[in-house]
UniProtKB/TrEMBL annotation:
This is Plant intracellular Ras-group-related LRR protein 6 isoform B. PANTHER family: PTHR48051, RAS SUPPRESSOR PROTEIN 1. The keyword Repeat applies. It holds the Pfam family LRR_1. The keyword NAD does not apply. Keywords: Leucine-rich repeat, Repeat. One of its GO terms (cellular component) is cytoplasm.
Length: 574
């Protein structure tokens, strides 16, 4: 022992591992001073590296503070139940390994070990990590696996240099969005064998992440933001509750291993067939078939499919060699050209639905839809819904449940009947666009179903106004578009819409315009000069109760003809 201690006195490195020690020799706490009376003390080195692994050491003394130059301390595989507060008095400590002990708590004083780069406290009895670790700004490698930790302190967000994090085998239920978004240098992240119920959307900010292991949790979905993890080469998500894959996963061009075994997948998206995988584990899911496009995944060396209720593939193919299965799938590509388009539409709908969760706006424009997809009323509180440029013939009764809907765009479809009963349930609707449909006549009381409308577009529906629906039922209307309606005259009650700001009657067959226009009691400050063009036929223009600034009172007092002539004179000469 003395020989080893004397050698360490000269080198600054001491290794006492596997020596059946029950305590640390006092000479170590004294920084090896006093060893060998004839030593040249000025040639002695400060102790910088201390390895005490695989012993039976039960405690550390506070005298540890006497080793201020210590940079490496390995106490793994001992019998420690706690660490001394003096651990924070080692200002040059860079690597601390206390794994495989029985430690129940790490003292907050560790936050004073500001040079700490690597901490391994795995395989202990910890229920938490000290929040003071957030002061260890140089920390890049943190291993806390196989403990009893239920959450991570938010202060760890300060550890922006963290590149490796291993929390496998704990009791974590959630990963903080803030923490994940702060660890932009992360290259390896293991939080497998926990109780996580989701993946933070901020995961997409980890552009340097190479290995992500979240297997054996309770995760039900993969966020579409995973597309931001473009350095990812290994992704382990087996033993979870995942039922669908985001199409964005197909953009992870560097991914080589994708483990999705023991989930609830019902299909494998065509988009994910773009991956250049070596290993794909889909065993023990609910797959009944595979997309023919998977045959193009020629880089695959191992495709695991056992434990799926495959109905479209022979069992000999499923359990046979991967190249044979891929060849069979490729042979089906020509037979399934139509299925790709259907799947693509489905994936677009899925993506649009996902985006609507945060934006509350759902766009399914020009998807060749013949019916409104169920995702519309299943996607939560959508405020704006765009279903234009499809072949939809009617609105389903389920749409009535979208009570938060404010904007409904149904332009360029095949709707024939005014959907009054549905619209009546959409109590928040303020914008309705039904232009360019083969819409038949709107019932006389049709507009009573949508009394809060501010914007209405019925352009191109020539037959819709034959029954004379009452525009007076729309007192809040601000914009009205009636282009290409074959109108020979303006519906008389339009002039009573006091809040109307835009009236588009272009491309009609108008022979006359209303003789009276009542704009009284509004907030009109300026009149457009174009209004003067109505001078030949407009007999009465009511403007009282408006804060007009563009026309002098002396002109207003002269009446309608004078006002219209005044405006007409303001028009630029053509």
């Amino acid at each position: 022992m003395d020989r080893i201690l004397k050698a360490a006195r000269a080198s600054g490195s001491l290794n006492l591992s596997n020596r059946s020690l029950t305590e640390i020799p006092d000479e170590v706490y004294r920084n090896l001073e006093g060893l060998g009376g004839d030593d040249k003390w000025w040639e002695a080195a400060e102790l910088q590296k201390l390895i005490l692994a695989h012993n039976s050491i039960a405690s550390l003394k506070e005298d540890l503070r006497n080793l201020p130059f210590l940079s490496v301390l390995n106490l793994s595989h001992n019998s420690l139940s706690q660490l001394p507060a003096a651990i924070g008095e080692l200002p040059q400590l860079k690597m601390l390994d206390v794994s495989f002990n029985s430690i129940v708590k790490i003292p907050e004083e560790i936050g004073s070990a500001v040079s700490l780069v690597k901490l391994d406290c795995s395989n202990n009895r910890l229920t938490e990590l000290p929040s003071s670790l957030g002061r260890c700004l140089e920390l890049s490698d943190l291993k806390g696996s196989n403990n009893l930790i239920t959450n991570l302190p938010e202060d760890l967000a300060n550890c922006s240099k963290l590149s490796k994090l291993d929390m496998e085998g704990n009791r974590l239920t959630v990963m903080s969005e803030n923490l994940i978004s702060s660890w932009t240098m992360l290259t390896e992240f293991n939080s497998s064998k926990n109780l996580l119920n989701g993946i933070p959307t901020s995961i997409g900010g980890l552009s340097r992440l190479i290995r992500l292991d979240l297997h054996q949790n309770r995760i039900s979905a993969i966020p579409s933001s995973i597309i931001g993890c473009h350095s990812l080469t290994e992704l382990y998500l087996g033993n979870n509750n995942i039922s669908t894959l985001p199409v964005e996963i197909g953009a992870l061009s560097r991914l080589g291993t994708l483990d999705l075994h023991s989930n609830q997948l019902k299909d494998y998206p065509v988009e994910a067939c773009k991956l250049s995988l070596l290993v794909l584990d889909l065993s023990n899911n609910s797959l009944s078939g595979l997309p023919p496009e998977m045959g193009k995944m020629t880089t695959l060396r191992k495709l695991l499919l056992s434990g799926n209720p495959m109905r479209t593939l022979r069992s000999s193919l499923v359990s046979g060699p991967t190249p044979a299965l891929l060849k069979f799938l490729r042979s089906r590509l020509s037979e399934d050209e139509d299925s790709e388009a259907v799947t693509t539409t489905k994936e677009v709908i899925t993506m649009a639905t996902r985006l609507s969760i945060s934006s509350k706006e759902l766009s399914m424009e020009e998807l060749g839809l013949s019916a409104v997809p169920s995702e519309v009323w299943e996607s939560g509180e959508v405020i704006k819904l765009n279903l234009s440029r499809n072949s939809i013939q009617e609105l389903p009764v389920e749409l009535s449940s979208c009570v938060s809907l404010q904007t409904l765009i149904l332009s360029k479809n095949q709707i024939k009947d005014w959907p009054g009963s549905i619209l009546k349930s959409l109590s928040s609707l303020s914008c309705l666009k039904l232009d360019n449909n083969p819409l038949r006549q709107i019932p006389s009381d049709g507009f009573e179903m949508v009394p809060k409308l501010q914007i209405l577009d019925l352009s191109g529906n020539a037959a819709s106004l034959l029954d004379g629906p009452a525009f007076s039922s729309l007192p809040y209307l601000q914009e009205l578009y009636l282009r290409r309606m074959r109108l020979s005259e303006v519906p008389s009650d339009i002039v009573g819409l006091h809040q109307l700001r835009i009236l588009d009657l272009s491309q009609n067959s108008l022979q006359s315009i209303p003789v009276e226009l009542d704009l009284s009691n509004n907030n009109i400050a300026v009149l457009p000069p174009e209004l003067g063009l109505l001078e030949p036929s407009l007999q009465a223009l009511r403007l009282d109760g408006n804060p007009l600034r563009s026309i002098r009172r002396t002109v207003l007092d002269k009446g309608t003809k004078a006002v219209l002539q005044y405006l007409k004179d303001k028009l630029p000469e053509q």
